[in-house]
Amino acid sequence: MKRLAVLLSGRGSNFIAIHDAMLRGEIPGAEIALVLSNKADAPGLATARERGLISVAIPSKGMKRDEHDQAVIAELQRAEVDLVILAGYMRLLTPAFIAAFPQRILNIHPSLLPAFPGLDAQHQAFDYGAQIAGCTVHFVDEQMDHGVIVLQRAIAVNPDDTAESLSARILHEEHIAYAEAIRRVLSGNYTICNRRFIPKKN
Ligand code: GRF
Question: Within 6 Å (CB) of ligand 1, which residues are found?
Answer without folding.
Answer: 8, 10-14, 44, 87-88, 108-110, 171, 174
